[in-house]
Design a protein that fits this description.
Strands 1-4-5-13 form a four-stranded mixed sheet, sandwiched between helices. A four-stranded antiparallel sheet has the order 6-9-11-7. It has 16 helices and 13 strands. It is of the alpha/beta class and 434 residues long. The structure holds uracil (URA) and calcium ion (CA). The site of uracil has 6 residues, from helix 9.
Length: 434
């Protein structure tokens, strides 16, 4: 096979075969195919798209490029949840214990945050003592005993995707539906779960800026998952403003605990029930979404979901008393309110800027090796469409620096006060193949 002919084939919009895709991915991973040829191929895919078969083969080739996790020693249907990333997305932190409290095994491998989006692992590490390093044996034993464990990414999963993602980043080929879908799904499939619940975010704080784009991505991922034998469902949800009120690691842990106590903010709680119900149905613990939601609500009212979170914290070395004593979590030295400069209705131009403001405070990483300041961040007091009067606090800044003028400028630059804006829906749609 000659690479140049395969590039030309895709350039003309023809479908590649499984053998051709395997050859390309293997060659690129083993560095017998150079970056310049792969760049040209990626650009051809960007313009000419891929068929459902090609997408599946590409995903499988990337899975095959590295290690896969074997969860077969864990009893029950393993359901993984994945979010395409957003601001104040505390759902994983809540869903893990909530779903596990129903006896559904949650064997979660999670990532660290980068840029304006936070990572579940960073949030958990803000709990004093909590550690995310478990051997595979311990990981499986914890899930079988407690129904839940959350660990950092280990092993050499999907090295082809790592290389391709870095190349796409510098060749303007990240924003391609078949490439994004296969990238995400290869990682989910390699991580070994039986079923997958996807939260595809749409809006200014997300990767996909319009509902149409988000739907295409959701459909592409659901199709790949189901074709690969993993039952997959996608919820398309809003990210035109932070999902919860808290942005920042310890602040989001507190918010997650509040949701588990039944006292969390509405949008976050509603999305947790929607995603959780899909997971419960995928795990075959309920036959309808309505029945599943009822089960989940009972776990919160009875306190079982919160107990499950304590169990998780304790099992991984953390101080489980944080659920009653928030002061045990890292604190910021200063708090500043951001007052509304005028009266009117709140709108948020670009939710990503709010995530970036929290990052500037030290809650996130600008580059991979940055240190995180666990106690800092923001707590929003207003959502899109809320009325404010001049002088009223829009949000509170938690900082370890006295000078937060740069952060305030960023926030004032994206929070507008004026006419009543159109309210975004929380959930746009649920995508399944049936
Ligand atoms: N996230 C991924 O993991 N891959 C992509 O291609 C885009 C977002
Ligand atoms: Ca720690």
């Amino acid at each position: 096979m000659r690479v140049v002919e395969l590039i030309e084939k895709k350039q003309h919009g023809k479908a590649l075969t499984k053998q051709e895709i395997d050859f390309l991915i293997k060659g690129y991973t083993e560095e017998t195919i150079p970056d310049y040829q792969m760049s040209a191929l990626l650009m051809a895919i960007y313009f000419k798209d891929m068929t459902p078969d090609e997408r599946l083969w590409l995903t499988r080739a990337m899975v095959k490029s590295g290690d896969t996790i074997d969860l077969s020693k864990i009893n029950g249907v393993k359901v993984d949840k994945h979010s395409t990333g957003g601001v104040a997305d505390t759902t994983t932190l809540v869903l893990g214990p909530l779903v596990a409290s129903l006896g559904i095994p949650v064997a979660k491998m999670s990532g660290r945050g980068l840029g304006h989006t936070g990572g579940t692992i960073d949030k958990l590490e803000s709990i004093p003592g909590f550690h995310i390093e478990l051997t595979t044996k311990e990981f499986i034993a914890h899930v079988n005993r407690d129904k839940i464990a959350i660990v950092g990414q280990t092993g050499n999963l999907t090295p082809a995707d790592k290389k391709l993602y870095a190349l796409r980043d510098v060749t303007a080929t990240v924003g391609s539906i078949p490439l994004i879908a296969s990238s995400i799904m290869s990682k989910k499939i390699a991580a070994g779960s039986d079923a997958i619940c996807l939260d595809v975010k749409v809006g200014s704080g997300a990767f996909m800026k319009t509902p149409e784009e988000a739907r295409k991505l959701a459909e592409a991922m659901v199709q790949i998952g189901n074709d690969a034998g993993r039952k997959t469902v996608a919820v398309i949800s809003d990210m035109s403003q932070p999902l919860g009120n808290a942005v920042g690691n310890a602040l989001e842990v507190i918010e997650a605990i509040e949701v588990l106590k039944g006292k969390g903010p509405k949008a976050l709680t509603d999305l947790v029930f929607e995603l959780g119900a899909q997971m419960v149905v995928l795990a075959q613990k309920a036959t309808t979404v309505a029945e599943a939601k009822q089960l989940l609500k009972e776990q919160i009212t009875s306190g079982k979901a919160l107990e499950q979170f304590q169990k998780l914290i304790k099992a991984q070395g953390g101080n489980e008393e944080v659920v009653t004593t928030y002061e045990l979590l890292p604190q910021a030295n200063y708090q500043f309110d951001l007052p509304a400069t005028t009266s009117g209705y709140v709108n948020i131009k670009d939710a990503e800027q709010i995530g970036l403001a929290a990052m500037l405070l030290g809650a996130g990483r600008a580059v991979k090796d940055d240190e995180i300041d666990y106690g800092v961040g923001l707590v929003m007091h207003k959502r899109i469409g809320d009325h404010v009067t001049a002088g009223e606090s829009l949000l509170t800044i938690y900082s370890n620096r006295e000078d937060v003028s740069e952060v305030e400028d960023k926030l004032y630059g994206t929070i507008e006060i004026g006419e009543k804006p159109k309210l975004p829906p929380l959930i746009y749609d649920i995508v399944t193949t049936e």
